[in-house]
Amino acid sequence: MDNPRQVDEPALEHWRSHPRRRQCRILSDPGMLRECNNDLFDPESLRARGQWTGSSSGRRATHFLRHEGRDWVLRHYWRGGLMARVATDTYLWTGLERSRPVREWRLMARLHELGLPVPRPGAARVCRHGPVYRGDLLSERIPDSHPLDEWIGDGKDTPELWDAVGRVIARFHAHGAWHADLNARNILIQGNGQVWLIDWDRGRIGYYRGLQDNLSRLRRSLDKWPATRERGALGWPHLLQAYNEERKPA
């Protein structure tokens, strides 16, 4: 059974000026961040102040930082698919509450409140420029963790691990928590075996119709990569068995 946690009431800060005449607004959790401004979303500023601690590889890197005694993950919102050829990181403005960073922040805060294993969100930033906006999300970094595909690639995917993954997914599905891109990179495993689901952009809660699609998408991601295809096929029955056991009515 999930144990609800107390979550501090978020504070929606006032509009702030930003370079290039964009208007930025920051939604933050005062229980997580006492000080939150635009500098926290600027990798160059973080480097200059000695708060930047690293980044993922690739052109669209995720950045890591240290602030107020906590480790954080800073993720910019990038477009994918065909739209990325037209607009790499801008989205049509339809209102602050409908923006992707704010929606993901609120969803993650709700999932955390339900006691589900998601990184706790610290702040979301939305910068509007006329009819479009750009966005960023700051969330806590899960220590000593690696994606499921790395555990599989290293041969550390025991039946117990597959069991744990299946049970955690079932806990989310019990609340109708639908993940828009459930794949082996968005499942983090800590050294102690704790399982986390990350990257909740475009996710939903109270949405029960698409839950089977979540499992199908995860299976396709395992089949897609040669490093996970064979071991994924062996581990999948363990995941499904644990998932179904967890989903059985009490």
Automatic annotation (TrEMBL):
Keywords: ATP-binding, Cell inner membrane, Cell membrane, Kinase, Lipopolysaccharide biosynthesis, Membrane, Nucleotide-binding, Transferase. The keyword Cell inner membrane applies. Its EC number is 2.7.1.166. It comes from the Bacteria. One of its GO terms (molecular function) is ATP binding. Its main location: membrane. It catalyses: an alpha-Kdo-(2->6)-lipid IVA + ATP = a 4-O-phospho-alpha-Kdo-(2->6)-lipid IVA + ADP + H(+). GO terms for cellular component: plasma membrane. It is an enzyme of class 2 (transferase). The keyword GTP-binding does not apply. GO terms for biological process: lipopolysaccharide core region biosynthetic process. It is found in: Cell inner membrane. The active site is at 181. Pathway: Bacterial outer membrane biogenesis; LPS core biosynthesis. Gene3D superfamilies: Transferase(Phosphotransferase) domain 1. Pfam families: Kdo. It is a peripheral membrane protein. Belongs to the protein kinase superfamily. KdkA/RfaP family. Catalyzes the ATP-dependent phosphorylation of the 3-deoxy-D-manno-octulosonic acid (Kdo) residue in Kdo-lipid IV(A) at the 4-OH position. This is 3-deoxy-D-manno-octulosonic acid kinase. It comes from Thioalkalivibrio halophilus.
